[in-house]
Amino acid sequence: MEQKTFSNPILSNGADPWIVRDPDGSYYMSVTLGDRIALWHSQTLSGLGQVEAKTVWVPEPNGPFSRNLWAPELHRIDGRWYIYYTANDGGGDDTRRICVLELTGDDPINGEWCFKGAVNTEVPGLDGTVLQHQGELYFFYSGYGRFPDYGSAIYAARMTNPWTLTGPNVLITAPTASWEKQGGMAINEGPVFLRRNGWIFLVFSASATWSDDYCLGMTKIPESADLLDAKSWIKEEGPVFAKHPSAGVYAPGHNSFTVSPDGSEDWIVYHAYDYSETNQQRSAGAPRSTRIQSFGWKSNGMPDFGIPTGVGILISRPAGE
Fold first, then answer.
1. Edge-to-edge, what's the strand order for the sheet holding 54-57?
2. Of 13, 29, 88, 212, which sits most exposed with the smallest number of CB within 10 A?
3. pLDDT tens per residue, the chain (321 residues)?
4. Does residue 148 have a cis peptide bond before it, meaning omega lies within 30 degrees of 0?
5. In the beta sheet, which residues pair with residue 27?
């Protein structure tokens, strides 16, 4: 009998998960692996963690962007596939850059990926993502600085092509509230987008990723506004998705979004810990795992992400599987 349910996590060791749906209806997933980039490919959303990953990119050893490969994202732009990822040479935060790969052909698993270079951001950073809007490309990333504590904030700039920025890098949201500064560092990172009801929602991760209070925040802007007008963005005053200790879910964050196979359901993809930061298993290096769950919308048109689902809880499979 076909299973009608599944349970989280879908991948036991999968930080910074990114899931994107191919125009053919299948799904791709990537996570942080550190020394390489791999893709999971499945016909079903809930089955992504059950397929074997395929390594698609390994940098030249000892090169300038050969270490600490983090948070790869697969994007389809103007009919071509690109991967954006963070990397450095093993140095500190000031050496981190967002790099771009371009696919030759149309098969992300078996095609040849070509290194296009590091994006020319004004400040060092990580977690680059692309937003296509009204015929233009915009690049959003997490840039390092002091806001007012050492950490990162979300910047945006226009793109002339999928690997080149033009014009100023505009500060969109910085970590100024206490809920954005837990764990000893002020952080806004991992920007990702939703669009609905005439709004663009920018969802980001806040606080230090090692803190139980790592969470998701959100800022929004009308679709008709100038995305590079920082004053047009309206930021929520607190987290929109946070830990759920009674269910054993801590530090939920660094997310992405996708839809069910039939397009009727919105799904959030995120990583989380099973244990509190005070737990010995966590301090010994327990991995962050990849989880997915559906979410809804409030009557005022805003997303309602609910609360993180505990490990092992049965969840209905995405509609259309």
1. 18-21, 27-30, 37-42, 54-57
2. 13
3. 468 999 999 999 999 999 999 999 999 999 999 999 999 999 999 999 999 999 999 999 988 899 999 999 999 999 999 999 999 999 889 999 999 999 999 999 999 999 999 999 999 999 999 999 999 999 999 999 998 899 999 999 999 999 999 999 999 999 999 999 999 999 999 999 999 999 999 999 999 999 999 999 999 999 999 999 999 999 999 999 999 999 999 999 999 999 999 999 999 999 999 989 988 777 667 799 999 999 999 999 999 999 999 999 999 999 999
4. yes
5. 21, 42
